[in-house]
């Protein structure tokens, strides 16, 4: 079976006229995290991280199923950097989460880093200012969006040792998905 990959991820509202609903964003985050965790676990012994994880390396098919492309194409310069390279993948995944939730690019035209901007806004407790307006307009659960935002912020910690591993990230996202699914079931009844 040949899958037709329709596009790489594009979360920025201004570049994409089609709505990208919360539930789809959460599913993309979950599936991408699981795939990356699986790859990390399978390739840890061989010391092969992705090495260049970014939203343009996440391809989405017509069914909104993500696929990680270009895995392992970056050459590792030294074996002692391998552990940090896996944590660099976690950082890249965190940026993808922040893009998913904010609808903003990683570095804007003014040179402002998305991770730094989100951390600053959260310190000021302006959470609603961070989330993509289209998400807020669809009246999705702000609490679950903020919980996913917290996962993203943990992934973009400045110190690689402070970042979770991808298995931990998957567990955090699964918990958010379970809350979302439970809420959907309760709203139907």
From TrEMBL:
GO molecular function: ATP binding; protein kinase activity
Residue stretches making up the Protein kinase domain: 1-189
Record-linked Gene3D superfamilies: Transferase(Phosphotransferase) domain 1
Descriptive protein name: Protein kinase domain-containing protein
Organism field: Cucumis sativus (Cucumber)
Lineage summary: Eukaryota, Viridiplantae, Streptophyta, Embryophyta, Tracheophyta
């Amino acid at each position: 079976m040949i899958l037709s990959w329709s596009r790489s991820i594009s979360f920025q509202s201004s570049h994409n006229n089609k709505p990208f609903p919360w539930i789809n964003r959460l599913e993309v985050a979950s599936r991408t995290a699981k795939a990356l965790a699986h790859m990390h676990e399978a390739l840890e012994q061989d010391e092969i991280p992705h090495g260049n994880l970014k939203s343009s390396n996440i391809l989405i098919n017509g069914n909104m199923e993500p696929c990680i492309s270009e895995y392992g194409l970056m050459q590792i310069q030294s074996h002692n950097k391998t552990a940090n390279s896996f944590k660099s993948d976690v950082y890249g995944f965190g940026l993808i989460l922040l893009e998913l939730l904010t609808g903003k690019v990683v570095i804007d035209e003014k040179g402002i880093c998305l991770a730094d901007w989100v951390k600053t806004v959260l310190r000021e407790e302006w959470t609603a200012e961070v989330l993509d307006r289209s998400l807020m307009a669809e009246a999705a659960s702000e609490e679950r969006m903020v919980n996913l935002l917290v996962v993203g912020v943990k992934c973009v910690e400045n110190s690689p040792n402070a970042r979770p591993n991808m298995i931990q990230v998957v567990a955090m996202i699964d918990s958010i998905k379970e809350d979302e699914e439970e809420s959907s079931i309760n709203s139907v009844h």
